[in-house]
Amino acid sequence: MYYDDHAPPHFHVRYGEHKAIIMIETVAILDGYLPARALGLITEWASLHKGELVEDWRLAERHAPLKKIKPLE
User: Fold this and answer.
1) Residues 58 and 13 sit within 8 Å (Cβ to Cβ)
2) What's the pTM value of the predicted model, to 2 decimals?
3) How far apart (Å, rounded) are the C-alpha atoms in residues 56 and 53?
């Protein structure tokens, strides 16, 4: 996430040379491309941590420090 980023709430993903913007609410690609395997892992992770992602988005809007979110195990 980036401070001063635009709505809708989203997060940025980099996987090798690929980049994508993922909407938090729907866990859908807003922009960019990810290979199917990477997208599946990101979808699983984001679904498990949706509440934390929303909380971090709200913190970013206030320029407050973001909280770390656990990786997929």
Assistant:
1) no
2) 0.91
3) 5
- Cβ neighbourhood burial of 21 (10 Å; 0-12, 13-18, 19+): middle
**pLDDT tens-digit series, residues 20-34:** 999 999 999 999 999
Residue 47's pLDDT is 96
Longest dimension (CA), the chain: 34
User: Could you tell me where the DSSP H helices lie in the chain?
Assistant: 36-48, 50-61
Helix (H/G/I), strand (E/B), else coil: 58: helix
C-alpha distances in Å from residue 68, one per residue of 1, 7, 14: 11, 21, 17
Tell me which residue of 11, 33, 14, 36 sits closest to 22, measured CA to CA. 11
